[in-house]
Structure prediction request, 528 residues.
Amino acid sequence: MKTQINSSDGQRNYMRKAKLHKLLIFWCRILVFAGFLALWQTAASFKWIDSFYFSSPLAIAKLFVHDIRDMSLLRHIGITLLESGLSFLLIIVFSVITATFFWFYPSLGKMLEPFLIVLNSLPKSALAPLIIVWLGTGPRTIILCGMSVGIFGCILNLYQAFEQTDPERLKLIETLGGNKLQKFTKIVFPQNIPTFISIAKVNIGLALVGVIIGEFLAGRQGLGYLIIYGSQVFKLDMVILSIVILCAIAMLLYGMLNLLNKKIIALWQ
Amino acid sequence: MKSEKPFVRLDHVKFSYYSSRGEVEALKDIDFSVEKGSFVAIVGPSGCGKSTILSIISGLLKPTGGYITFYSEEFAPPKIGYMLQHDHLLEWRDVYQNILLGLEIRKLKTPQNLELIDNLLEKYKLANVKHQKPSALSGGMRQRIALIRTLALRPDLLLLDEPFSALDYQTRLSVSKDVYDIIKSEEKTAILVTHDISEAVAMADTVILLTKPPCRVKDIIPIEFEKHGISRDEVRNSKLFQQYFDEIWRELQNENTNQ
Prediction:
């Protein structure tokens, strides 16, 4: 028996409704956003709110165009992206190496796990001042701040994922004559690639959080610096513009990893 | 292909598991031998150390007492193939890459071995699924692929650890028959562990019955359909099959009620 697709009226009707509903949701989202902007602009124009404190969409757009033209904004964006990217890469590399090491030497993993749990539940921004004292202000500190937010959780999650590999599958490798290294390369690692991608998805956001904290405290450039600087000199346009750009960056990075995730999941099924 | 020479012999093999809850004596005194080319089934109450015996023969576990001896014409330890309860085909590899797993691990991806795989796939009508993902295949097909993955390493002895128990009844009948045919036509020696009496009787030349844990060999029953002119394809319909089944069933029942 074949499943009938789009053949009966009922089915076609259902499909049409489902599609319509999806479209409706999409346009409602756009409408909410546009409505919000319009309300904000109107409120600012008619002086219902003080645009000195609350800025306005037009002022922000103007500032955006201006700062893009004189390249200053692009440089700040670039620096934040670069710092986040580096933090993220370092988190990933360092976590994979550590979690792998723990898997090969489980006693070491068991021994260090409680320390990692404590470090992971610590509010990581508390570490930032310490890092500044040790490393001074500058990109090194900011990247370390970026790493500090995600890394402990990343190691823990990855290690726990490695640990939960089906022992029967490891036995399979043994029955085929494989050693511990091959258990890792043939089973543990490839099996956990989907987990790895979802951990990465969380950590790209955390790296951004850490980098912004770092830039708040120790930056001379970058979006975090713009936010702090803007708030200190009461250039709220600049602050809100930076926040909007951060939203866009976060969305973009998340979207990219989501796409990668879908591709990998498809391969892994 | 049956010869009278023993191929593997277990002498008073003992095995105990140690855990924080105490020592568990799984195997007390296991004594039997397997002839080259024969098909031996090990049947016993659930929870007895059936699988442990296979792990010990394969060398994954060291016995706490006793000996295992392999007799072989070459001065090399026999190659052992192991089939587990689940096929464990890796979902990120296609069928062919899954079959290659053992060869990759042993660094034996030689042209001859690759040819062997192609021949096996061709012979057992699996060549058309070579590049499919395991998830696209039925349970029976997956278990046959797992067998070819095992055969790719050219084992002298095959250890089958309840390889059909995860399949539904219909599939189990047909796959166990397929696996039997493959093992016989490749002239392999095989030891099957199962809790399914009819499966043991249908496939084996010898059924080894175990006692409740700590396990000993309770009885060794030769299964002689060939002597009575019954072909393996139709054993399940024969009277003799029922007789063997009842005999083993009774002995297992006794084992379960005697305490």
About this structure: Chain A touches chain B at residues 166, 168-169, 171-178, 182, 186-187, 190-191, 193, 267-269 (CB under 8 Å).
